[in-house]
Amino acid sequence: MGSVKETKEREGKLAVTWCKDNFLIANTDKFQAMLTDPCRLNERDTKCDLMIQGATIDSSDHISLFAVDIDRNLLFKNHIGKICKKARKRVAVITHFCNLVLIKVKLQIY
Fold it and tell me: Domain of 96?
């Protein structure tokens, strides 16, 4: 586990250096870490906090990339759950207002 942590910290420092060299600012507060080898991991090995440029990057069982949640087994269970929850709420609102809207308006919307 130590060599993986050292490698990731070194790569993180390289990424931050690349950003500085290209006149970009890396926001280490938004960095995320996750181990993704479910065959070799047990529960105690899932935490591997990294230290990059003086900032501690907490590792977790799932991360969010471009509003898509991915867990350490590279599944989308959390993401699908969030999408289903949003859809349920929207359907509930439509169902609630269904009886309040006139048939002409419903046909125009449809």
Answer: 76-110
